[in-house]
Amino acid sequence: MDALAFLDERVAQVIRELEEDFHKTGQERMWAPKLHPESARFLHMLVLIGKYRRLLEIGGGVGYSTLWLAHAAHRNGGHLVTCEIEVARAEVSRRHVRRAGLHGVVTFLIGDARQTVGELAGPFDFVLIDTTKADYITYFELVTPKLLPNGLIVADNVTSHAKALAPYIQHVRHHPLYESITVPIGKGLELSRRVR
């Protein structure tokens, strides 16, 4: 069975094209999907199971993870805010989202997320951090006041960039408001649930 068969057809088609493009030789890093396909499927399922409706994505890239999260948000009757610093990537993402028929579900914030996220009112119940590794703790702290109880913060690349993200892991594991666990899917996901 097609792994994308459970998605709306328009969404599945765009995701399929992105995955095929990624495997072509000469793919430029800037345009590559940022989230591993297994991680994307896992987060899609997680959002659906958790019935999360107020989603925030920090580091949207060309829209691969955005499509997965937006589709799940749409199924839950929710909305996704996606942040991307590179104008060109954000415009590519916007085109993908439009082609997939999800443009009404996504708000694009273009600029430095250290500023744009700080200006968001929230609240959110699901956050994906997948951007500059040195800033993960900064983003974690920026979204904590905006995260609902039982809300989830997911950080990508915690095993593929284990050394760079060791301070982040240390930070979330000892934070009094969270319980946190590493899920060894894709490039490694750190799931941190706000418990109080």
Count of DSSP helices? 7
**What's the CATH H-level homologous superfamily?**
Vaccinia Virus protein VP39
What are the low-pLDDT stretches, counting only 5+ consecutive residues below 50?
Answer: none
Question: Main β-sheet: number of strands, strand sense, barrel status?
Answer: 7 strands, mixed
Question: Could you name the CATH topology?
Answer: Rossmann fold
Radius of gyration: 16 Å
End-to-end CA span: 41 Å
CATH architecture: 3-Layer(aba) Sandwich
CATH top level is: Alpha Beta
Order of helices and strands: HHEHEHEHEHEHEE
Structural class: alpha/beta
Count of all domains: 1
Average pLDDT figure? 93
Shape: globular
Q: Total number of β-strand segments?
A: 7
Order of the strands making up the biggest sheet: 3-2-1-4-5-7-6
- How much of the sequence is in beta strands? 15-25%
| Helix percentage | 40-55%
